[in-house]
Design brief:
With about 70 residues, the protein is mostly helical. It is about 75% helix and about 0% strand. It has one domain. It has 4 helices and no strands. Helix 1 packs across helix 2 and helix 1 crosses helix 4. The mean pLDDT is about 95.
Length: about 70
């Protein structure tokens, strides 16, 4: 799982053009991270790009609520 997390964080960093440490912070404080670790949801079965897309969608939704 840690390889998958690394690829997701790297993808997030690349897509948002942010520092890798900022991407780790965003990832670990997200609902997507919690859902990824929930075996009943099966999010871990999706591809890395799909999970990055979901994470970016979550970030945008949270920003729109501010």
């Amino acid at each position: 799982m840690w390889n998958k997390i690394g690829r997701i964080v790297k993808g997030l960093s690349d897509r948002l053009d942010i520092d890798i440490l900022k991407a780790f912070d965003i990832f670990y404080s997200s609902d997507t991270c919690k859902n990824l670790h929930n075996p009943h949801l099966g999010l871990y079965l999706l591809g890395d790009i799909c999970i990055v897309d979901e994470l970016i969608k979550e970030i945008r939704e949270k920003d729109s609520l501010k």
